[in-house]
């Protein structure tokens, strides 16, 4: 009898040890993956993706969305937007990544913070529903490309640039001279094409008629309250409202568990570098060269 009790005790100890190790492995794995487990809810898990500031690079956000897509325990996703937009390609890549969640039947709800304009609104069009604060600054539907013209400045300091090229458009957007009529026509055609892609995303994602979109797709901004009136958002509310909506769409009962990536700590040097880049981009300079932007100016 004593021997049997000893064996049962050893078995229970072994099971407890395995369970503890498994739980520790799960927590460490989630921490390394950048996800923060929140154990408060028992009904299910809602992923929270945050798109804050300039949309310059999509890699980290797309990777986070793909992790949430692979996680079978995540039933729905909320994308929180507080951004004036940014690069066209980066905005489109995040939009496409959110769209792939629909293939796995995971609903997406967009939540607007202070600003959700241009490229940020483009991203939101991939959502099943958009929730905005009444005072959110949104809209700015359009595309822009900026070039500085420093011809007069370099003429004053006696600097000239000699260019050898293989075609008349090879140095389009040069900062050393004014833009020609042919160059302006060429670039306007490119911008018009990318603008049409933006409008198409709204028509497809929002289920709106093109004729209802175009009157407001001239770069103007409007409040969240106006966006609801015009049909560009579905309801007014805050982040909690968006999470509740996502949970319901995902079939989650009870309070959901929120899965989010830990925010990166920004240093003073990072802030200074960001501000200097913003000043340069506002003047038309960029280390990446000219680029198309879905961005609020």
- Looking at the chains present, what oligomeric state does this protein adopt? single chain
SSE string: HEEHEEHEHEEHHHEHEHEHE
Could you name the CATH topology? 2-enoyl-CoA Hydratase, Chain A, domain 1
Number of helices: 10
Q: Tell me the CATH superfamily.
A: 2-enoyl-CoA Hydratase, Chain A, domain 1
Strand content: 15-25%
Q: From the alpha-carbon coordinates, what is the Rg to the nearest angstrom? A: 25 Å
Helix content: 40-55%
CATH architecture: Alpha-Beta Complex
Average of per-residue pLDDT values: 82
What would your notes on this structure say?
The chain contains ten helices and eleven strands. Strand 2 (45-52), helix 2 and strand 3 form a beta-alpha-beta unit. The chain has 297 residues and is an alpha/beta fold. Strands 1, 2, 3, 5, 6, 7, 8, 9 and 10 form a nine-stranded mixed β-sheet that branches. Residues 27-42 and 283-287 have low confidence and may be disordered.
